[in-house]
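pipeline/complex-builder :: batch 7 item 3
reading input block
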Amino acid sequence: MRRAQLLIAILSVSLSLAAPLVVRSDYLFQVLFRVSLFAALGLAWNLVGGYAGQLSLGHAAYFGAGAYGLALFSKAGIHPWSALLLAVLVAVLFAALIGGVSFRLRGPYFTLSTIAFAEVLRLAAKNLVSITSGDVGLPVPGLFAKSFVRSLYLAAVLLTAVTLGITAWVSRSKFGYYLMAIREDEDTALSVGVNAARSKLMVLLLSAALTALGGGLYGSLFLFIVPDQVFSIDISVEMAIVAMLGGAGTILGPLIGAAILESAAELLKNLFHEAHLLIYGILIVLVVLFLPEGITGSLAHRLRPRSAMAAPSSKEPDTVPK
Amino acid sequence: MRSVCASAVAVLGCALALTGCRRGTDRSDRSDEGSGNKVKVGVITSLTGSTAAFGQAHKNGYAIALDELNGRGRLLGKRVELDYYDDQSRPDQAVQGVSKLVDQDHVPIILGAYSSENTRAIVPAVTQKQIPLLMPTATADNVIESGSPWTFRICAGAGAYATRTVAFLKDTGAPKKMAIIYENTNFGQSNAQAMLEAAKQAGIEVVDSEAYQASSPDYKTLLQRVKAKNPAVIYFASYLLDATTLMRQAEQVGLNPAYYTSAGTGFAAAEFPTPDKGAGRNAEYTFSVSQWLPSARWKGSKEFDEKYFQRTGSHPAYHAMEAYVTLLAAAEAIQKANSNNPQTIRDALRELNMPETPFGPIKFDAKGQNQHPVLITQVQGGQYRVVWPVDAAEAKPIIPTPPWNQR
Amino acid sequence: MDSFFPALQAILNGVLTGALYSLIGMGMALIFGVMRIVNFAHGAFMMVGMYATYVLFERTGLNPYFGFLASAIYLFLLGYLFYWGLLKRIQGQSDFMQILLTLGCGLILTDGTQLLFGADYHQINLALLGKNVHLGRQISLNAPWLISFGIALALGALLYFFVMHTMHGRAARAIAQNPYAAPLMGINVHRVQAFSFGVGVAAAGIAGGLLLPVFYLYPTVGDQFTLKAFVMVVLGGMGSIQGAAIAGLVLGVVENLTSLFWGNEWALAVDFVIFLLVLSLRPSGIFGSQRV
């Protein structure tokens, strides 16, 4: 099952790479950019939220750090690509700090503390005017000179591919099993010798780095950022919903979630104008009520009885958190 | 495994169907462009969200200009059509709008956005896509100082607001101490910065400069702080919602400067002096910079006021007029360019000279800025009255502002 | 400058604002205590309370200081139905599903309101607004804020009484202490939870109604209060109603003192910093006795 998922994922990424052969319009590239960006972000969130079961709603902190880092370091005269790497470094530092505090908490306390950290960063970016120029905003360098939107789209697909590779590795490595053990029951995991604190922190650092890369690409597309845009709680929520909708803790889930949610968001906006958030909300509620394990998870459940008869003991590590 | 294969095929099928329909829309776009019996003008403004009140004023102003254009005859033999994009009062949405309007709808020019924040955010995008941008209402000066050759601004900016307010103060009693209260946004910060510099040059001491978080329910403590510094003048840079809260709470804390002055916007909105959508009697005596009033001396001002009143049942503030005249200027440039090409239209805008519009003469300098005179108004009897400069004044300024307990 | 009177004034203003925060926080604490659900739609319910009070005022001229009662009943019913229709169905699922559900419902309430009433803001103008009560020469308190403070105090006390001394309240506390043992003692868990959820969102709605005369309303007005409610609930000790009440007052005072000594734009940031400090140093909350 997992191998099949991986196969589908690789196929869809390759298909996405071929998109420039048929798509011409920059507008469509922008929509496709959003889809692949959120696929990458959903996968990055999925490492922490899906595999390790730590429900962060503060990933906007790393996203914003990526975008602001890119803008600020380039402003200081550093080459944009090096600036992006430095920004990722800063995001990882933030993650170390945030993880150090938040991972001591569990359940809703953890979730709320991640929100609080992201909010503190948002307000700091708004108010530290001498550094960030506050709500006036900052210009962000375009990372590509030629066929800008298309190149950014390809970069986003590449980021998705990298994140996918990391997810595939995590899902079958010892590290990944530690994470899943923590997700299922942290105390039991501790008692059998899993270093829970270290594993959780490591996966958060990884996730933060990938998220920051995504933030940098996003800022670069808009060429200009303000704090309320990149540090917004909406970003954190969207990342999580993408992963949950598709199926948290699966390889394919975030890809499906991003494809459905992001194209739906754009379509709904063009079709229903002011009602699009309402429909978005209804969609979320329906998924929670009827597909609690996400599309991939529920699909797997539907399909399992038949294959389960053939191999009743097949253990599936890649299901959703309890 | 069979089921997995089936689902794989399904996903692939979906993907192909998607690319298929994408190609479809792509093609229809092209054909649409060819069948040109209309001139599309892109408009980005805030129809929803926190600055929706101003976006609606924009929309009314644009609609009146559109009626006139299409009634007067055709532009380049075609009908003018407005292509709106609602930025939801959010900068990222405004940037998305540029992409939608240019890449999908192929408009040759964009008007907008409403706020300084959103306008600043779209400057890099229009520059990159090489589409002329005509700004009706953004007052922060960084929207025009980016060095982009594609941007033009109809309204006067923060720098002009500040220097004119200071000149007015020197003319009418030369107060010595000023406090600045501004919301922490692009609009607020740039107006506060401009005032800091203008006051310094004029020898007015700025005793306090307070940023605030917009849309809070409670500014009493902030106002208390200002009161303790005892300024003779307060200069506000606020949107409408906060202008109302600030003036209500100024009464509550008994803040009594000789002048309440402001960088327009919230303090110059048509709703501000009204009791049910604004500060009502608390708006009385406040000064504001203004770009235009229905009573302005330029020809066509009254007619615009009448048309606006017919359409909406209320009188326009300058934001609607700025939108109106922005569309007129865009049409004039398209006419002069005699083409649908962004570059040619841009060049026509550079050369544009409209000596008589209801908003006064319009002509852009090398930076793309229209030199527009700024007036000072005061709310008297629930109405905005021009009180300065003297040659344009309809009423005398009432100075000092009577204390709250003597009103 | 002599900072005694300004500071005293700021503290008093903070207490007046804080009482409304307390109502919002107590509502959320009740919900969290009985259901272990973090209600991300709390601010949206508050916003609905504001609109309900506003519509009553516009249509019938009913003064908001009475109108809030009607909107409280309306919100109670809304919350009650919300529980039976949605929340009950996902009991026992992960925290995150519950968070997602309330997030989605918040979106529905907010955007539904926007469709009904438009994105434009509304406000009401009571003559009371200009009335101030002076204490000595230096201190003055605004009448509408004083009235809402009094009402909030009375209702807060009532809510406390409800939880501590009524059958429903005892049952709710029993569920909070042990959700598995409570039904064995003959407690109808669903009914108590539905009732508590109704009361919890009604408290938020009342705060909204009381805020209406001194604020303005627009569809997303509640969002900032959802975040504040989280802060209060954690500060007070998750699920502790009296803790959340005190935390609300503390928040009001801290915000106003920050505003006085540092600047208004930092007030919200200080809220979150305190929140994080409490979470990392004393996760059971400053005032809470409940264990995490």
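note: The radius of gyration of chain B is 23 Å.
queue -> next item
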